[in-house]
Amino acid sequence: MMNAPQVGVVMGSSSDWEVMKHAAMLLKQLGIHFEAKVVSAHRTPDLLFEYAASAEARGLKAIIAGAGGAAHLPGMIASKTIVPVLGVPVPSKYLKGMDSLLSIVQMPKGIPVATFAIGEAGAANAALFAASLIARYDDALATRLNEFRRSQSDTVMAMDLPDVE
Q1: Number of neighbours of residue 82 by Cβ within 10 angstroms
Q2: 39 vs 129: CA distance, rounded Å
């Protein structure tokens, strides 16, 4: 169980990986074991139901679900588990992810999905949010997460602006 995944990173299609890999990279950087999988709400509904229904028993503490277009994946997963679902709208070809954002954020009362920004920033922030959830019960992770935040502050503090001519 030591290396069992704590976070699931799922997406509706392999083409969503370009966005969702930003969640995976941060989870890896923070030392959080995760699994990444394609689970389509529309093309593999039985797989989606099995994945969501087994999430808690398999030890997942959060599921980061990225989806584009109609973006049903996060909500459908949330409807089948009490594991927190963090929705990441993936940019779509024609509506640039606004369709995805509205589909994920507009969940009916009683089936919550935490919704993040469209694209890479949303994927990264979903990973950091999952890390925060887990860090409440994992002192070593809390230390790594605090160090990550300190390094962000240090980067900003070290910035120099060019001289005015």
Answers
A1: 9
A2: 21
Give burial (CB, 10 Å; 0-12/13-18/19+) of 68.
Answer: buried
- Global pTM reads 0.95
User: Nearest-CA neighbor of 32 among 57, 13, 9, 55?
Assistant: 9
- Which helix or strand (DSSP H or E) is residue 24 part of? helix 17-29
List, in sequence order, every residue forming a beta bridge with 8; answer none if it has no partner. 35, 63
pLDDT of residue 3: 85
Nearest to 33 by CA among 129, 137, 127: 127
The pLDDT assigned to 56 comes to: 97
Partnered with residue 10 across adjacent β-strands are 37, 65
Alpha helix positions (H), 67-165: 73-78, 98-105, 120-135, 139-157
* Cβ 63 vs Cβ 83: under 8 Å: yes
Could you tell me where the DSSP H helices lie in 15-97? 17-29, 45-54, 73-78
Q: Tell me the average confidence (pLDDT) per consecutive run of 10 residues in the chain, 165 residues long.
A: 89 97 98 97 96 98 95 96 98 93 94 97 98 98 97 95 92
Helices (H) and strands (E) in the chain, counts: 6, 5
